[in-house]
Design brief:
The protein has 369 residues and is an all-alpha fold. Helices cover 73% and strands 0% of the residues. It contains 17 helices and no strands. Helix 5 runs antiparallel to helix 8 and helix 12 packs antiparallel against helix 14. The longest helix has 29 residues. It is globular and about 60 Å long.
Length: 369
Amino acid sequence: MHRMEETTDKKTSVRRTEIDVAKGFALFLVVFGHVLDRDSIWAYWIFMFHMPVFFFLSGMTFRPEKYKSLSDFLKDKWKKRIIPYFIVTFIGLAICMLRADYQQPVLERGWKDILTWIFYYGQPVELYVGQIWFMVGLFMAELISYLWFRLLGHQSPALRCYSLLLLAWAAMNVGKLNTALSTVFPMVHRLPWKIDTGLCAAVFLIAGYYTTKSKLLERLENQGNLSWFLIPFFTWLSYYFGPRLHGYVNICDCAYSPGPYYFLVAFLGSAALVLTAVLCKNWRFWQYCGRYSLPIFSAQTFAIYWVTEWIALATGRVYVPRHGMPNSKIALLITIAAFALLAAFVYPWHLYKTKKTTELPFLRKSTKK
């Protein structure tokens, strides 16, 4: 039994380039969504699925069966999720303390509130690394999923489906529990450590797990031209049933449209992105971005603001991400500049890891099949 599990782990441990490419695409959309004006319909559409797809992709590589016990699982995930969360958070705090413009909002908010958000909510505020909440949310999603697999992973398909529907229902209604919590304890307004977000994220993570287990992507890839039809079809459906009908959603804040629509749109948008990544899985630049998704994801806000500050110095025009974008074209140009800066930011680390200094490996297509 142990040998069989080791063989399975070795087979599934081979890096899947389509997952890296999908992460790269999703990262670009995350940056674009954080530059676009808050009330832009394109921002609404991106927020429908840009974080659910990360949880889905994490589920595609999730292997609960390799852990012998809950304690082994917690030790591994604490090291991979929570320690990076604190490292990135305190790097962001240090940078903010070194610059007066960044320091002022922190001091105005007060250290008590800053530390409460870091240690209780699992979501730093005023530190330009607030997006690192994803690591805490992923930890909770993986924990909930691990427990789900331990309890129900070997039950009948019908029971597992009903339990997932119950989990989705709980995720959509957790806001009521948050409201009750804030009524009893006025000093807090939601559950700690992104438990509420983790409930919803676990649905996407479990779906990603079964996508890999069922080899669904491989089957679709073998269908040839089917993806060329499904990608625009899924994209249009996610747009129509998402921002056209229901406006803003955000899994981080547990702000959802009605449950069936929310999950429909999130899965459709995620599917369109992942299928596109399968078609483009040999593009080395996007593989590179996806492989270094954590540092790129963590530094995105700094990159966005540095680009807008350089524009202000060079032209005198002040653009405020999420609040003062005149149009989507300007937002796209700022996104491209910020993303290029992020790609350059991680390149020295890439060189260190690969020890190749003679070529830029992401400027050509991979010939690997």
